[in-house]
Amino acid sequence: MNDKLKLENQLCFRLYTAARLTMQAYWPYFEPLGLTYPQYLVLLVLWEKDSQPVNDIARKLMLETNTVTPLLQRMEKQGLVVRTKGKEDSRQRIVSLTEKGRALEAEAEHIPDCLSNEISARTDNMEELEQMIPQLDKLISALKTK
Known about the structure:
Layout: H1 11-30, H2 37-48, E1 52-53, H3 54-61, H4 65-77, E2 81-85, E3 93-97, H5 99-108, H6 111-122, H7 126-143
């Protein structure tokens, strides 16, 4: 068998597994807030800067608008965001936080520390993991198609 085709030699498998397990580790923190991981990411974008076009949110999350739109529709039904027509271009949709969406920021403030503490308790060196961020950013940049 070709060694390149062994599962143990696949970078993509490690990235996939790390991402899946990270989202799984977040679940106990999101569940009480009624959030999914993708919704949390949208909220992070809007907590940083409210009232953004759908296209800008999609770009920041490195997703297509046809992926983000159904997510935003569900969030709107939950009362977390509202979508309004753009003032300059009525085809554009502006996404803004509702009071409920803004209030979740205070409730979610502990999540990054909780997850960091959980990972720190399971690994020998959290600093090593944090040093991976620039390398992952390089990989993401190299793989981006747009």
